[in-house]
Design brief:
Length: 116
């Protein structure tokens, strides 16, 4: 014998299941640009093993970040022959609404290497 479920209760239960779910609003993105200079120039910059590039006398390594939070934490490793490998923990402020705005006002960071 089947259990008795009133039709009204059954209709309420089914309506709740059949209702379409609203898509959540996309999260806002924050952008930030960093220009990384080194003393001396000619340093190879790595982030978690990924090669970012080499700094020059007037040529920084440039990176653009975006996230749903207003900051980014980055572990860098800087290497140059004749100098100690230098770890650098970078906290980047992501304070712009667009990539273009972040590129117009980059954060400038200078890392000084130690000799061996």
């Amino acid at each position: 014998m089947r259990p008795f479920i009133p039709a009204v209760t059954l209709a309420v239960l089914l309506c709740g299941c059949a209702a379409p779910r609203a898509n959540p609003a996309p999260k806002k993105l924050y952008y930030g640009t960093v220009n990384l200079f080194t003393d001396p120039p000619g340093v190879h910059v790595y982030c978690d093993g990924e090669y970012w590039g080499e700094t020059g006398a007037d040529k920084p390594v440039v990176r653009i970040y975006w996230n749903t939070h207003n900051r980014a934490n980055v572990n860098l490793s800087l290497k140059k022959r004749g100098y100690k490998t230098t770890p650098y923990y970078l906290v980047l402020r992501l304070e712009h609404d667009t990539r273009e705005a972040s590129e117009k006002s980059p954060q400038k960071v200078v890392v000084v290497m130690d000799t061996e």
